[in-house]
Write a structure and sequence with these properties.
heterodimer; A: about 110 residues; mainly alpha; two-stranded antiparallel sheet; 3 helices; B: about 500 residues; alpha/beta; Amidase signature (AS) enzymes; 11 strands; about 10% strand
Chain lengths: ~110, ~500
């Protein structure tokens, strides 16, 4: 049974968490309005009887050949390392992102 | 010699027979961009040095008699979501503002292998999410036909550049009309080929099941030549079909005598701009005079549900595709006290407002409840739309319908009336949902000089036949002229 749904503030907070996006609370009404107007636009689509229809998938005229499953000799490491924001010998130097001993990191390298 | 007025095929012919050099052609186009793009803002990165090297290489080969390549010396531009080796690829977003890829997208590689010379990258809506080219971090692009109007989007920079005579061919990507709608707004020819015709390898994805690379040109001869170069299987993209393609250039000369062509009816013509209705009537007349039979056709499921279906599929795809831009795996990095805060800050700072909203809506419809009630039904409606077209193309060879319900919008409409902008995708997004080839064809201009384009659609992998139809109409309507950008005077970049 298909249902028409509405997004509320509680669900919005949940979705903000899933999508790793922050939003000031004063912008909640505008975003809720936009999301719900898109959902209302889609409600009519639910009236179609699609019970005997399979979800869309692409048909292929001629499937492409797959690459052989064998190691390829590749000489491009230095080329990529040259692009690292900070390089340390043969390694990328990346910012620390995991807290040590439960303490919060300061985002230092 | 006014090289910017030449077609791609004329340029290549002259380079191959020694009438002029690729370097001369390149210099003339670069000079035109530098002189006038300050008024239009269609080019965001100009790669002069690498372009000069490529042109000199073509000239060396030409001197040795080795430059017999189909697009020898043809300068081209690509949308800023195509990976280009050694040239920044930003998607016009802060998220990727300093990213320089190590490889060329397959489409770019194929153009270069055909002798074309890459001049740089064009402006676009951030991450291809928009239809006005106003949401770029580099500022908006203006329409070279009327500086008070938008060029359409999201490939607005590519369409504006071709209309302005900055290059004879530009590449764009089309997720719901992003090549064809700006081609219509700028009065040039734009094509979205069948899904699986051209490799998507190296294109920064918006919605992978809808995205397709497409050429923008000022005539169908150049478009067929570009298609011949671009189309083909690619071991780096398993969605790119391996069937044996016809010669698009030869097929485009086939004519349409005896073909059956449908004109779409059963939609609200009262809300459309009148010149666009007249453009469809005119196109049908041209087809009749070229020996085709015209019938009327209705597509009730498509016309009622395509926009809703498109937004469900596109935004659902986008929210998962753009999840990788988290400040760690890819993209702008902001400092945070912990992992969650770092992700959130990076994405908030890196993405613009419109992109963040589309990700939110897409994430919402993939969560429990919404997924079952909205996303899954949309994937079924998508199949119903594809079936409706498959039935139509059992009876006819092609369909003529609008590409946009409106002439180019005035600047700023996206803020005033976003729903109108969304509904503008009603006609263009259909070809992406069903994977069909579609051409936005200019058939004339209004009294105020605004372009009037129509949309031609054909069965999946019927791209060659569609080019023949476009060429037959173009033979009657004429090719669009280059926009008179000189009128506003120079504005150097």
């Amino acid at each position: 049974m298909i249902k028409k749904m509405e997004m509320d503030e509680v669900r919005l907070r949940e979705v903000l968490g899933f999508s790793c996006i922050g939003l000031p609370e004063e912008e909640y009404p505008e975003v809720l309005d936009r999301v719900n107007s898109v959902l209302r636009m889609c409600d009519e689509m639910q009236e179609l009887d699609s019970s005997n229809v399979s979800p869309f998938e692409w048909d292929v005229k001629k499937a492409p050949e797959r690459r052989e499953d064998r190691p390829v000799v590749w000489e491009g490491r230095d080329h990529f390392l040259d692009q690292a924001p900070v390089r340390d010998g043969d390694f990328f130097h990346v910012p620390r992102i995991i807290a040590i001993d439960g303490s919060e990191t300061e985002g230092d390298e | 010699m006014e090289f910017y007025k030449l077609s791609a095929l004329e340029i290549a012919e002259g380079v191959k027979n020694g009438k002029w050099t690729a370097s001369e052609v390149l210099s003339a186009h670069l000079e035109r961009i530098k002189k006038y793009d300050g008024n239009i803002n269609s080019v965001v990165t100009l790669s002069e040095e690498s372009a000069q090297r490529e042109a000199e290489e073509i000239d060396r080969m030409s001197a040795d008699g080795r430059a017999q390549r189909p697009l020898a010396g043809v300068p081209f531009l690509v949308k800023d979501n195509f990976c280009t080796e050694g040239i920044r690829t930003t998607c016009c977003s802060k998220m990727l503002s300093d990213w320089i890829p190590d490889y060329d997208a397959t489409a770019v590689r194929r153009m270069k292998a055909a002798g074309a010379v890459l001049m740089g990258k064009t402006n676009m809506d951030e991450f291809a999410m928009g239809s006005t080219t106003e949401s770029s971090i580099f500022g908006p692009t203006l329409n070279p036909r009327d500086f008070d109007r938008v060029p359409g989007g999201s490939s607005g920079g590519s369409a504006a550049a071709v209309a302005a005579g900055f290059c004879p061919i530009a590449l764009g990507s089309d997720t719901g009309g992003s090549v064809r709608q700006p081609s219509a707004f700028c009065g040039v020819q734009g094509m979205k080929p069948s899904y699986g015709q051209i490799s998507r390898y190296g294109i920064v994805a918006y919605a992978s099941s809808l995205d397709q690379v497409g050429p923008i040109t000022r005539n169908i001869g150049d478009m067929a030549a570009a298609m011949e170069v671009l189309a083909g299987p690619d071991s780096n993209d398993t969605t790119c079909d391996a069937y044996e393609r016809p010669s698009f250039s030869e097929a485009s000369l086939a004519g349409i005598e005896g073909k059956k062509i449908a004109v779409l009816t059963g939609y609200d013509t009262d809300s459309m701009d009148r010149p666009l209705i007249e453009a469809i009537e005119k196109s049908a007349d041209y087809c009749r005079s070229a020996g085709a039979e015209i019938i009327e056709a209705q597509l009730p499921i498509t016309m009622k549900h395509a926009v809703a279906c498109y937004y469900m599929v596109a935004l659902g795809d986008a929210s998962s595709k753009l999840a990788c831009y988290d400040g760690m795996r890819y993209g702008h990095h902001a400092e945070g006290r912990n992992l969650a805060e770092m992700y959130k800050k990076s994405r908030n700072q890196g993405f613009g407002k419109e992109v963040r909203k589309r990700i939110l809506i897409g994430t919402c419809i993939l969560t429990r409840g919404y997924y079952e009630n909205y996303y899954v039904p949309a994937t079924k409606v998508r199949q119903m739309i594809a079936d409706e077209y498959a039935e139509l193309f059992k009876k006819v060879d092609a369909l003529i319908c609008p590409i946009s319900p409106a002439l180019p919008y005035k600047k700023g409409l996206v803020e005033e009336d976003p729903v109108r902008i969304y509904l503008g995708d009603a006609f263009s997004s259909i070809a992406n949902l069903a994977g069909l080839p579609s051409i936005s064809l200019n058939v004339g201009f209004t009294e105020k000089g605004l372009p009037a384009n129509v949309q031609l659609m054909g069965p999946r992998f019927g791209d060659a036949g569609l080019l023949a139809l476009a060429r037959s109409i173009e033979n009657k309507a004429g090719c669009p002229s280059i926009a008179e950008i000189e009128k506003k005077g120079e504005c150097r970049i």
